[in-house]
Amino acid sequence: MSAGDGTARERGKEQMRAVYGWDIEPTKPFELQTVDHLFGEVWGGRPDTLSVRDLRLVLIGMTVGTGQIDVAGLQIDTALRLGEVSPEDLRHLVTFLSHYAGWPRGAALNSEVEQIISRHEAAKSEEDPGS
Question: Is residue 114 part of a domain?
Answer without folding.
Answer: yes
